[in-house]
Amino acid sequence: GPAAPQRVLFPPTFSVSEIKNKQRRHFMFLRWKQQQRKEKLAAKKKRRKEREALGDKAPPKAIPKTIENQRVYDETTVDPNDEEVAFDEATDEFAPYFNRQTVPKILITTSDRPRGRTVRFCEQLATVIPNSHVYYRRGLALKRIIPQCIARDFTDLIVINEDRKIPNGLVLSHLPDGPTAHFRMSSVRLRKEIKRKGKEPTEHVPEVILNNFTTRLGHSIGRMFASLFPHDPQFIGRQVATFHNQRDYIFFRFHRYIFKSEKKVGIQELGPRFTLKLRSLQKGTFDSKFGEYEWIHKRREMDTSRRKFHL
Q: Which CATH superfamily, name and number, covers 81-303?
């Protein structure tokens, strides 16, 4: 009689991408994915059954690998007891702030003739940072603004740059002697674009939380952010400004927390929120021509591994 039809078995080296017909290739790919999913679920079920059978004797669950916990070691990661770092920080440009000799006074300005969204962002940023003043720039070079700021006891200058009406950059310059950090800015959300937002922020000085700034460079940037805010938070205001560094992206959030009971605390986001990515850190105040750079992000040379971070 006729031979029984053979079930087609793919050779072990066979790859779906070798199928020339696009539809057929897509169909086979979906089938392969389905098969993978089935096997994964079966393995998971089996593991769970084994754990249940072992009860208390089950081995501890494995910690999943993430980009963060597989991070390439950075030799500039700061040890809390490092005396050299302690000395540097006792004598750096921010020491007068941390020794409470200076009180932060911040000028927030913009690129030339800002548009609506950038203007609103600056206004909202001024409600987050106490003792900050917004100045709309009309044709005045930053070089000219800086001496005026220093003469009026401003401790920091923030410049918000925009592209096609969207805020896309932030320059933070510590006065009178620098340093100056340039950030790329993205994902800006203004107050009215935040769901379930709290009432407007109050005048209270917020707490500042800096997460995950672990290297020497990270420490410098963290100190820059910290010194924008007055030293003594007014906890009665329950407002918190958070700079959270994850994979060299700095996420800014502004919250108010609410004690619902002795054990329960709720938080409301007040906004605005934005994300920063450090482009460069420059010694001294703003000087695009002759500035001496401490650090510049050079993607092709520096980002050799997806697990390497600089902050």
A: Brix domain (3.40.50.10480)
DSSP structure class, residue 13 = T
- What is the per-residue pLDDT across 103-143, written as a single tens digit (0 to 9) for each? 999 999 998 888 889 999 999 999 999 999 999 888 888 88
SS (H, E, C) 149-171: HHHCCCCEEEEEEEECCEEEEEE
Q: What are phi and psi of 278, to 5 degrees?
A: -70, 125
Give the tens place of pLDDT for each residue, 148-206: 999 999 999 999 999 988 999 999 999 998 899 999 999 999 999 998 877 889 999 99
Question: 108 with 81: CB under 8 angstroms?
Answer: no
- The alpha carbons of the chain give a radius of gyration, in whole angstroms, of 27
149: left (phi over 0), alpha (psi -120 to 50) or beta: alpha
Looking up tokens 């940037």 gives 221
Q: Give, in degrees to the nearest 5, the angle at Cα 249 between 66 and 71.
A: 30
The phi and psi torsions of 254 (rounded to 5 degrees) equal: -130, 120
Minimal CA–CA distance to 155: which of 219, 222, 101, 233? Answer: 101
Q: Which two tokens stand for residue 266?
A: 């709720």
Query: How do the domains of the chain map onto residue ranges?
Result: 16-54, 81-303
Single-letter code of the amino acid located at 15: S
Single pTM value for the model: 0.81
